[in-house]
């Protein structure tokens, strides 16, 4: 009488039956935390692949922009490839390379010269994360050839990553070809095509 608590059959506790079964035990919480931890460990590699795939795609977009800048350069220079060094060791080196030759044809800033996956800072130190194919120096686009062996523009590499920046891409590098497409696929060859 006067006690508003529901009688739970145990004298003096005053706890209702509906509240007794709703709490988690410490062991149940530990099991749930262990399961969540295992799921996170399993999901992390997939997450890394997605992040790296995004960086590889951004790198390919950079190469395409550099290809468009090269197209503008060619338009102003009688369709003749520039004479450039493959790369330089430091931005203080005064040699013709892609970042100090094609920069005037880009409106988006210098970020396009650095691969987003370049964790070693090669782009910052040398001006770019990409290598120029110096075997093309001074060649006219209409008669372009690679080492005297390949003359199909879709198989002649112009620019590529300096290193294997993309661990989840088969070849680990992205390449810009003379026909303007950029891809992760190696497309140059030195023999007869298989269809001939």
Q: Could you say which overall geometry the principal axes of the C-alpha atoms support?
A: elongated
Low-confidence stretches: none
Question: How big a fraction of the residues is strand?
Answer: 5-15%
Structural class: alpha+beta
Give the strand order, joined by hyphens, for the main sheet: 1-2-3-4
Short description:
By secondary structure, this protein is α+β, with helices and mostly antiparallel strands. The chain has helices at 17-20, 26-76, 98-101, 122-126; strands spanning 130-132, 157-161, 175-177, 182-183.
Write the layout of secondary structure elements.
Elements: H1 17-20, H2 26-76, H3 98-101, H4 122-126, E1 130-132, E2 157-161, E3 175-177, E4 182-183
Antiparallel strand pairs: 1-2, 2-3, 3-4
